[in-house]
Amino acid sequence: MVGPVTRTYDSDSDDYPGDEVYELVWDDMQSIESLQSSPVKPSSSTHRPSMITPLADRLAASLNRVDTDIRNVRLSKDTEQSELDEDCEEESPITPNKPKSLVLFPESRTNGVKRTLQNTTTRPSPKVRRTTANQTERFGFAPPSSCSDVFDQPAPVRKPIVVQAQHRVKSATLAFEPSGHQLTLAMVSHDRNVQALMDARCLAWGVIYEIARGVTRGAWKWSDVTPEKLDRLKGTNVQSAYKVNTIIGDKPVPIQPPASDVWAEYDREEKAIKENLTRGLGLMGEWEGQRNWYGGSIQQRVRLVKNPTSSRLAYSFQLEKPEIRRSNRFSRFLGSRRMLQLSVPDDLLLREGDQLRGFLSGVKLVLCGRIYVPFHAKDNSLYMMESDEDYQRKPLPFYGDEHRLSFAEFVKWHNPLSLNSNQPISKWSTRWALGLSTSVPVLEFAPEDIFSIDDKIAPHDKSQGKPPAAKCMTDGCGFINGAGLTQIMRIMEYPNRPTAVQGRIAGSKGMWVLHPDPSEQFADGPPKIWIRPSQDKIKLPPLALVDRAHLIFDLLAPSRTTIPSRISAQTIVNLSFNGVPNEVITSLMKEGLGEEVKSLTEWNGPDAMVSVWRAVERAGHVVHSRLRKRAAGQARALGLGRDRSEKDAEQDSDDDFGKEEASSPLSPGYDGQPSSVYESAMTLIQAGFHPINLQPLFDKLKIILTMVINQYVSSFHMPVQESADAYIIPDPFGVLKEGEIHFRSSESLTNPATGAQFDTVRGEVLVTRNPTRLPSDIQKVTAVSHPKLDNYYGVIVFSTKGDRSLASWLGGGDTVTLIWSKPLVDSFKNSPFTEELVGLLNAFESHVESVMDFDERVVTLSAGQAQKEFQTILLLGLAETKVGLYSKFHDLAVYEYGYSSEQAVRMAYMFTTCLDSSKTGLRVRSEIFKKDHGAYASKAAYYMKKVETSDRFLVTNNTTYITKRHTSEPFILDVIVHEGLKLRDTHLNQYEKRGETLNRKLDKDLCKPFEDAEKRAVNAEKQGFPGLSHNLHEIKEHVDGVGIFWKRISAQSAREREGSPRKNSKHTSVRVCQRTSFQKRLSFFRGRD
Predict the structure, then answer these.
(1) Spans of biased composition, class Basic and acidic residues (predicted)?
(2) 535-566 in b/e burial notation, b at 16+ Cβ within 10 A?
(3) DSSP letter assigned to residue 736
(4) Are residues 265 and 370 in the same domain?
(5) Lowest pLDDT segment from 5-14, 243-252, 562-571, 1038-1047
(6) Which of 325, 328, 331 is closest to 629 using CA atoms?
């Protein structure tokens, strides 16, 4: 039985859309009646506190909302816009004693979106229709008599509630509407006849997806999918999806289905989609056995494949295994199954960039009759949404097809062109990334609890128009009250309330910090939030009229402190340039490396092996990785750091079709084999083995030790014990002087000289962000303790006084590295701000076009050409920005000409301009890039080449040559590599010598089962049963054969490593994983023969 269908009427029709209005009030009426008769009050996590007000107040609030909705749909375009503008201009505060708008139960997702779109469209809204008899037929019961007068009489016109201090939003009339209808269809996988058979049987989406995935992987053809096989695949995702590979592939079906969370999650989402109450957005309590459930956590990925030249089509597509990875606003709003992510290989984009972009900007993908339209490109991936179009199939209520949005409606819902027409369209396009951030829904704000607050701006020349970003002292940071932070703490189960949170709400992004007003710091009460103009990236209709998704706070991460911090190669070069002696930096490396080596090689003592186990775990981030797997898309929101990159994820995606995952994210696999050398060593240690008595453990620790040393020397990531990483916030009270900061750590700090513990840093410190490319990117400031800021722990508070913000001196990003190590701080000297070179922008092609200008340009084109132009804008993220190349060019310019040289400064600004090119629309001129490429592409610094050509390091490129420096002073990274290589050899030689004391005897406990079996075999053979002896003989032959085979391929692999170029030190661990994987295959060596 399908729920009520929201109908769409033409604006010229005489029919009134009363059904929508009736649904809203009827839901509330039913809820009130059920609550009145129920002895149990609704849970506060599901309903708002206002639900416990008297029945009359709740009913009045509900009718007020109905009156507002009726008024909204009755107003014509001109009347509605003028009244909304007047409300926004008045900015009158909400009366404190006036009851807030009530939502007992969420309205349908379709109604909420349509209501939002009515306030962004330029078409007049339809009139209101009275109730009809067919409403009884639709709902199965008649409306209560108490509602009849509401619909029989014209509703009074009431102005919608306008948020206090909300900025006026002006709407432009645009001719272009992005429909997506004119795009060319590109087939991922589809068969008309089979699709009809699958729809007739109402197969679960997971089953359909797996059938199509098998076709794209070459496991079978569509012709192999017969009605008889499909009949065996009926049922839910949990019941049937795991059978696809066996039934379609004609293999035995497992007696017991393997545990897989993804199929259960598909079933939850399917129910939520058909329910159509925006449950997928979260914050509606338990759902299908999952506490605090929200949707959108399944990733459906497609890989673009280059076809052979003999193929009729240039490209094809391969579906990847669906996985529970991360959730974002779009996937929660649409549903996981209504989004696809197309991955484009790096090498293909490099070779055929223009051709590929031309192809992708003109197509939409077809998967099993559904049509997916691209809307954004980021990190070599295209993101697509399932529109309301179908190909060779009819929409079915079983799949909730009637609730789908058109592409035009999706654009209007997220980033309406008419309300953002003054933005450069390239910047408008980047705003899609706000909805793709991995996040967790944690709070839903009432519209009247969302406020606007001005930014604090430093003195500037107002005649020049908008102040520069450097003058904004509060850039990207608003306020949230204590009740909101407390609710986030409870929902996420943090051990304590965070001081600040990073997130998204409506069209805004950034940080929100605890409100400085003591009256807003209480733990109880409704959550409130204050948004600054610098955070507001997308203009939406008045918040009283937007869809529920825009009122939910999507949490990215809480404020957290990482101690100690690690400095990078760029930071080291900056420290050296600004006066820190090379000896101080190299001693820092020696001390840090010595501590790491010591923790892995001290094996004597009562608890020595416990310390070794911890050191191995820390080196391999084993526990952290397991927690991240278990947390899936919540890892960053739980304070576990950023998600693994898409590129890393793609490296594991070449799975064999039909291969099931382990039943638990914490288990290494069905065979129990540890997934890395770190886990293998940890398992042996906790089983009680000692490296002196077990050769395999000794060898594994040697591999780990080598990788730890390589990491130190080759990547230059060195820990500084007296340092921390934390988010920065502007001073909420304005009590810090210019050049002052405040930092109170969320965990205890220790003075290495005295052993005393403290939590607030005082005195001179260094602050920096990543990347660090200019001399002024590290600043020495003074850390102070101020009583007003004592509650702001775990964040670094920057002063809001001065001519420009302190953050504008540093690189980009929300996280700052704070260093209070005296050897580094005392010798450091600040550099003046490094200005951009005059005429730098002449190196770029500028095509800055506003949304309005784009509309005027494409209005003269055909509908198909206009849509392709729009898609080209949406997919600007696929354009070659040359960021990576200019990063390398800058490193080489610094090495050759000096850190503050004109060449190095130019390359630094070329890099940062390329980094922002997706927003600005700037592209490096071809002749400029050709010149820069010729000057640097074939060069390498000494430290790069030395690391690459070392016999225990990895080679990246044999065609480069070492460039000559224009100064006789030693370069700090050259010094570090030289010292590091000596340290590496010393430590590894010392480890090799310890191997001379190894106990070569066989372990009695490990050998006992086999020895017992030999005794039993001898006794059995004496009794005339030689079978066991024969089996043991075969086992010996198998083990000896595998041992010989392994030694041979290990020697071959070593020879290949000596002569084969490799890209980076990651491959050391990759090779270990490959060995582990190969060992798993060898366990079935004899059986395969």
Answers:
(1) 641-650
(2) bbbbbbbbbbbbbbbbbbbbbbbbbbbebbbb
(3) S
(4) yes
(5) 5-14
(6) 325
pTM (predicted TM-score): 0.78
Helix axes 1066-1082, 695-715, angle to 10 degrees: 150
Q: How far apart are CA 588 and CA 597, in angstroms?
A: 14
Pairwise CA distance, residues 880 & 444, whole Å:
39
d(CA 180, CA 385): 11
Sign of CA dihedral 524, 525, 526, 528: negative
Highest mean pLDDT: which range of 129-143, 387-401, 680-694, 929-943 = 387-401
* Per-residue burial over 1023-1036, b = 16 or more CB atoms within 10 Å of its CB, e = otherwise: eeeeebbeebeeee
Residue 886: which domain range? 840-969
Cite the beta strand spans of 736-819 per DSSP E: 740-750, 757-760, 763-768, 778-783, 795-798, 815-819
Statement to judge: residues 680 and 567 lie in one domain: yes
d(CA 315, CA 186): 10
pLDDT of 705: 93
Peptide bond into 558 cis (omega under 30): no
Contact 434, 413 (CB under 8 A): no
Name 682's Cβ contacts closer than 8 Å, sequence gap at least 6: 613, 616, 617, 620, 622, 674
Question: Could you write out the DSSP letters of every residue in 465-530?
Answer: SSPPGGGBTTTTEEEE-HHHHHHHHHHHT-SS--SEEEEEETTEEEEEEE-SSGGG--SSS---EE
| Residue 291: how many other CB atoms lie within 10 Å | 8
Provide the CA 762 distance to its chain's centre, in angstroms.
Answer: 35
CA separation for the pair 882, 770 (Å, rounded)? 18
Coarse DSSP helix, strand, coil percentages of the chain, rounded to the nearest 5 percent: 45, 15, 40
Residue 736 pLDDT more than 60? Answer: yes
* 627 lies in the same domain as 692: yes
The confidence score (pLDDT) of residue 313 equals 87
Cα–Cα nearest to 284, from 94, 109, 37, 536 = 109
Q: What pLDDT is recorded for position 915? A: 86
Query: CA-to-CA distance for 440 and 281, rounded, in angstroms?
Result: 9
Determine the residue type at 64: N
Query: 603 falls in which pLDDT band (50, 70, 90)?
Result: very high
Backbone conformation region of residue 525, classed left if phi is above 0, alpha if psi is from -120 to 50, else beta: left
Domain match, 269 and 369 both: yes
- Cis link prior to 564 (omega < 30° from 0)? yes
CA gap 727, 745 in Å, rounded: 11
Co-location of 505 and 532 in the same domain: yes
Regarding whether 555 and 576 lie in a shared domain, the answer is no
Query: 10 Å Cβ neighbour count for 66?
Result: 20
Asked whether residue 784 is assigned to any structural domain, the reply reads: yes
d(CA 523, CA 542): 28
Token representation of residue 664? 């638990």
Q: How confident is the model at residue 640 (pLDDT cuts 50, 70, 90)?
A: low
User: CA 433, CA 422: separation in Å to the nearest integer?
Assistant: 19
- What is the number of alpha carbons within 13 Å of residue 727 lying toward its C-beta? 26
CA atoms lying within 13 Å on the CB side of residue 868: 15
Kindly state whether residues 635 and 678 are assigned to the same domain. yes
In a domain, 295, yes or no: yes
The total number of structural domains in the chain stands at 5
Structural domain ending residue among the three candidates 540, 559, 578 = 559
Distance (Å, rounded) from C-alpha 276 to C-alpha 838?
A: 56
Please report whether residue 110 resides in a domain: no
Q: How many residues are given for the chain?
A: 1089
- The answer as to whether 871 is a domain residue is yes
What residues form DSSP beta bridges with 381? Answer: 343, 378
* Residue at token pair 């986030």: 488
Residues 314 and 405 reside in one and the same domain: yes
| pLDDT tops 50 at residue 478 | yes
